[in-house]
């Protein structure tokens, strides 16, 4: 009986330690890849990558967004960077707390050396706000940015204001009137922040005014994808083409494993066969 119990105990300890070991190994590989990019580009590399990851022994899911804790860490990394050293920020996020995104964006805009933001897949909402602080935004050809119009709870601020436009004030409840007042202030504040951010990056006043309006006036839904071509047409300082080293780093932030994978493929580049059937 003791022998069977010992095997069970060892198996339990192994399963308990395995997730921690995997996470440690991932962190080791990530740090190595970050140092490789830094050596090649002679820059400080900072990542702001939010994935749905499994944590702990039971494999519970944790989905991340831009938080105050994120802004604290990014600001700390910026302070540890010499003023004449370029910063490369690799960002992958659905957005998050507006205050945290604004803190990060403001700190990046104050950095003396060049700031480059890499968007391998998507940087929505607050992620786009942070990207606007960069001297250059490098996007994958299929990556997306998004509008930065404020959200009040689960609703777009501009949509709340539409209620007051379409109904007499006597037919609008007090709570909606309060939300509308908050919405008006939020739109004004965010638009001003985006304008000041663009002006600090030497964007002409007229263009800064246009962009700050387009990105905050609610003409699109909040999850509207602004792809590379449209970002270019809008006048954002974007270039296309994610370096292979950055793409390799993203592979070290895998989505959480599931019982049945929804996407499968052979993870290697292919070449078309030649006329004689050889590669």
What is the secondary structure topology, with strand pairs?
Elements: H1 2-41, E1 44-49, E2 52-55, E3 60-63, H2 68-79, E4 87-92, H3 98-110, E5 115-119, E6 122-123, H4 126-131, E7 136-139, E8 144-145, E9 151-152, E10 155-156, H5 157-166, H6 174-200, H7 205-216, E11 226-227, H8 228-234, E12 238-240, H9 244-250
Parallel strand pairs: 1-4, 4-5, 5-7, 6-8, 7-12
Antiparallel strand pairs: 2-3, 8-11, 9-10
Helix pairs in contact: 1-9, 2-3, 5-6, 6-7
Describe what this molecule looks like in 3D:
By secondary structure, the protein is an alpha/beta fold. It has helices spanning 2-41, 68-79, 98-110, 126-131, 157-166, 174-200, 205-216, 228-234, 244-250, and strands at residues 44-49, 52-55, 60-63, 87-92, 115-119, 122-123, 136-139, 144-145, 151-152, 155-156, 226-227, 238-240. A five-stranded parallel β-sheet has the order 1-4-5-7-12, with helices on both faces. A three-stranded mixed β-sheet has the order 6-8-11. It has a two-stranded antiparallel sheet with strand order 2-3. The radius of gyration is 23 Å and the shape is globular.
């Amino acid at each position: 009986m003791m022998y069977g119990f010992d095997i069970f105990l060892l198996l339990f300890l192994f399963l308990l330690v395995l997730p921690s070991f995997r996470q440690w190994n991932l962190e080791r590989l990530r740090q190595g890849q970050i140092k490789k990019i830094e050596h090649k580009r002679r820059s400080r590399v900072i990542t702001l990558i939010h994935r749905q990851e499994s944590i702990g022994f039971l494999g519970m899911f944790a989905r991340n967004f831009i938080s105050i804790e994120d802004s604290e860490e990014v600001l700390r990394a910026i302070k540890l960077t010499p003023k004449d050293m370029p910063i490369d920020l690799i960002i992958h996020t659905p957005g998050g707390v507006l205050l945290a995104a604004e803190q990060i964006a403001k700190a990046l805009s104050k950095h003396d050396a060049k700031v480059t933001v890499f968007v391998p897949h998507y940087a929505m909402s607050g992620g786009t706000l942070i990207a606007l602080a960069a001297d250059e935004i490098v996007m994958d050809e299929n990556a997306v940015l998004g509008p930065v119009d404020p959200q009040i709870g689960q609703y777009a601020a501009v949509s709340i204001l539409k209620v007051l436009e379409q109904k007499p004030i006597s037919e609008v409840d007090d709570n909606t009137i309060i939300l509308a007042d908050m919405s008006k202030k939020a739109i004004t504040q965010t638009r001003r922040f985006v304008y000041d951010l663009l002006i600090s990056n030497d964007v002409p006043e007229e263009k800064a005014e246009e962009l700050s309006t387009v990105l905050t006036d609610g003409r699109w839904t909040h999850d509207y994808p602004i792809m590379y071509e449209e970002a270019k047409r809008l006048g954002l300082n974007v270039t296309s083409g994610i370096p292979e080293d950055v793409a390799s780093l993203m592979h070290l932030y895998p989505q959480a494993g599931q019982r049945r994978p929804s996407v499968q493929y052979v993870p290697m580049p292919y070449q078309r066969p030649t006329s004689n059937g050889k590669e």
